[in-house]
Amino acid sequence: MRRAIEDAGGTAAADADYLARVREVAPDDTVRAMVTELAVEPPHTRRDPDEVYAGVQLVAVRLAAVNQRVTEVRGALQRLGQHADPAHLAAVQNELWVLQQYGQSLRDRGAAAL
């Protein structure tokens, strides 16, 4: 695959016909199929990824992880119920509050980066 990309002009030569050129120079159907499979979206030729783009992507990944953990902690809180050990209940509630605050700060920073 790497050789086919190089033979098609390398990634610097990416334009509207780039994927067709890579498929053309691919040595066999296996490599052509891999090119098609990995080409989930057209190459971005307008601008290079920059710090803002990378930051937005990082915020999105972190926010997804925080949301997953919030869901887990809420489930744990429901299972504990009101008759749980007060110290344990307070610790779980505190974790949920901290996660929600962190998630809000991620949303705020993500919106500012757009």
Report on the biggest sheet.
none
Q: Encode the helix/strand succession as letters.
A: HHHHH
Unreliable runs, pLDDT <50, ≥5 residues?
A: none
Kindly state the number of beta strands.
Answer: 0
Number of domains: 2
> What is the global morphology?
elongated
* Strand residues, percent: under 5%
Query: Mind telling me the C-alpha Rg?
Result: 23 Å
Helix amount: over 70%
Mean pLDDT: 84
Total number of helices: 5
Roughly how many Å apart are the termini? 34 Å
Tell me the structural class: mainly alpha
Write the layout of secondary structure elements.
Elements: H1 2-7, H2 18-25, H3 29-38, H4 51-80, H5 86-113
Organism: Streptomyces antimycoticus
Protein name: DNA primase DnaG DnaB-binding domain-containing protein
Report on the structure:
The structure is a single chain. With 114 residues, this protein is mostly helical. It folds into two domains: 2-38, no CATH class; 51-113. It has helices spanning 2-7, 18-25, 29-38, 51-80, 86-113. 7% of the residues are buried. The longest helix has 30 residues, at 51-80. The mean pLDDT is 84. The chain is elongated. It comes from Streptomyces antimycoticus. This is DNA primase DnaG DnaB-binding domain-containing protein.
